[in-house]
Amino acid sequence: MQTATKALPQKTRELHNHHFDSTVWNDFCFRDDDVVIATYAKSGTTWTQQIVGQLIFQGADDVDVSELSPWVDLRVPPKPVKLAAIEAQTHRRFLKTHLPVDALVFSPRAKYVYIGRDGRDVVWSLYNHHANANEAWYGALNDAPGRVGPPIGPPPASIRQYFLEWLEKDGYPFWSYFENVRSWWAVREQPNVLFVHFADLKADMPGEIARIAEFLGIEVDPERWPAILDHCSFAYMKAHAEKSAPLGGAFWDGGAATFIHRGVNGRWHDVLTAEDVAAYEARLAAELPAECAAWLAHGRLAAAAAPIAA
C-alpha cells in the first residue's frame, strides 16, 4: 500500500539528444494495467519485453515485440504519430523507456520493471549495437527533425577505447549510466516497481519469469509455461530476431540477428586491464550506494549470497 512517506517520483526536467525526446511522456495517457520496462540501454531490455509479451499473450508464437512494445521516449517517429499508435492498442500495453526517473512521468497506474546489468557487460553489448549500425540508423537519429545537441558518429575501432570513453564521460556517446541506475534505485521500494537483473535471468530464467508474472498479476495457464520458456530462450529469440529488433533489424548490418547478438556476460575480462577494472569499480563506488553497486555487479541472487563490502 502506498504510504505518506513514499511520495511518488516527480518529473523535474526534460532530456533531449540524438535519441531522446522525453516530452512524449508529458502527453501520454496511462491505463491501469500499463507495464513500463525501464533500463539503461543494452541491459536486457528486449529480453524483458519478450518475457512480458509472452506472459501477456500466454506463450503465443507470433508476438511481434518490435511492433507491440514501442520505445516511448525515442524521438522518432514524431510524438503525435507515436502516441496515436500506442493509444490505438487494445491489448495490455507494455512499453519501453531508457530515461532516468526524474525525466519520466511516473504514474501509480502503471507497473515498472527495471532491469540492471553490470556496466562493463552493457558496453560490450552497446559496442556491437553501435559498430554494426548502418546509414539508415545514423540518418534516423541525426537527420530527422528535432535533434538536440551534436549528432552521433561511428565508434572507434578499439572496444577498450570505447569503454574508457564511456566510463570517463559517463555513457558517451549515449547518456549517463550511473544517473539512470541511481535514479531507479532510489524508487525501488515503490509498490509498483520491480527490480530484475540480467545475471539473475541468466541463472534462473523460470524463477525470474515467475517473479515478473506475479508482480504483474498475470496468471499463466500451466500448459502454456513450456511455450513461454521456450519463446524467451536466447535460441528462440535469435531464430526469430526479426520480431524483436526495431524495424525487423533494418538499422543494422546483418539485420535482426546482429541486434540479438550473444546475450553473454564477461567478454570484457580478456580486454580490460587491471587498471581499467579498478577505474570502473572506483567509479561505481563513488556514484552508487554500496548495496546498489553489489546488486549491479552480481544480481539479486548472488548479491544476497555474497554481497561485496561497502
Short summary:
With 310 residues, this protein is of the alpha/beta class. It has helices at residues 45-56, 65-68, 79-87, 119-131, 135-142, 159-168, 177-185, 198-203, 205-216, 225-231, 234-239, 256-259, 274-287, 290-305, and strands spanning 35-39, 94-97, 111-116, 193-197. It has a single domain, classed as P-loop containing nucleotide triphosphate hydrolases (Rossmann fold, 3-Layer(aba) Sandwich), CATH 3.40.50.
Q: Can you put this structure into words, describing what you see?
A:
By secondary structure, this protein is of the alpha/beta class. It has one domain: P-loop containing nucleotide triphosphate hydrolases (Rossmann fold, 3-Layer(aba) Sandwich), CATH 3.40.50. The protein is built from 14 helices and four strands. The protein has a four-stranded parallel β-sheet with strand order 2-1-3-4, with helices on both faces. α4 packs across α6. The longest helix is centred in the last third of the chain and has 16 residues. The radius of gyration is 19 Å and the shape is globular. The relative contact order is 0.16.
Structure characteristics:
single chain, 310 residues, alpha/beta, Rossmann fold, 42% helix, disordered C terminus, Sulfotransferase_dom, Sulfotransferase domain-containing protein, P-loop_NTPase, transferase
CATH superfamily: P-loop containing nucleotide triphosphate hydrolases
Amount of beta strand: 5-15%
Which sheet architecture does the biggest sheet show? 4 strands, parallel
CATH fold description: Rossmann fold
Unreliable residue stretches: 306-310
Global structural class:
alpha/beta
Nearest-angstrom radius of gyration? Answer: 19 Å
Number of domains: 1
Succession of helices and strands: EHHHEEHHHHEHHHHHHH
**Terminal-residue CA separation:** 31 Å
Tell me which CATH architecture applies here: 3-Layer(aba) Sandwich
Task: Please state how the strands of the largest beta sheet are arranged side by side.
Answer: 2-1-3-4
- Number of β-strand runs: 4
Put simply, the count of helices is 14
Family: Belongs to the sulfotransferase 1 family.
InterPro entries: P-loop_NTPase, Sulfotransferase_dom
Pfam families: Sulfotransfer_1 (PF00685)
Protein name: Sulfotransferase domain-containing protein
